[in-house]
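Why should sequence recovery work at all? Because a backbone constrains its sequence more than one might expect. Tight turns favour small or flexible residues, buried strands favour hydrophobic ones, and helices have their own preferences. The token representation captures these environments compactly. In the example below, the structure is given first.
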């Protein structure tokens, strides 16, 4: 554990996403400028898509995200689940990667009940196909 704290609004927005108040497609978080707190970087409305989420990930900086992902289940038909993503691109600094890796458990503890966790270092690892595989979903 890195000792990094979570901003209070992260838990509030996560609980809203988890308990049916799904007004947001995703919540993206980053380290504060002083690296002492994880804060919300972007809260996207339900009108945004997963492709919009992927398109705004920074190619040189790490992020955490909780995404409300819609898909067709193998036996259940259409459904939406929350996925937790740790984005640490290869181009990020070693210091940033280490800080995000050591703070991941604090972030995960605030986001209990996600259906899947994805750790990604490049855009292929956050592609829809990768998420479908992880969820055992059909396209």
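From this structural description, the recovered sequence reads:
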């Amino acid at each position: 554990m890195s000792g990094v704290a979570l901003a209070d609004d992260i838990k509030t927005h996560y609980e809203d996403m988890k308990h049916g108040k799904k007004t947001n497609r995703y919540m993206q978080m980053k380290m504060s400028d002083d690296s002492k707190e994880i804060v919300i970087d972007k809260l996207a409305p339900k009108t945004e898509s997963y492709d919009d989420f992927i398109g705004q990930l920074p190619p040189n900086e790490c992020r955490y995200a909780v995404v409300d992902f819609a898909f067709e289940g193998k036996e259940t038909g259409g459904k939406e689940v929350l996925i937790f993503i740790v984005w640490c691109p290869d181009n990020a600094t070693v210091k940033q990667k280490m800080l995000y890796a050591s703070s991941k458990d604090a972030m995960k503890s605030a986001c209990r009940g996600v259906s899947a966790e994805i750790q990604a270092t490049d855009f292929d690892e956050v592609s829809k196909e990768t998420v479908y595989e992880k969820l055992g979903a059909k396209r």
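A few observations help interpret the result. The first strand starts at residue 5 and ends at 6.
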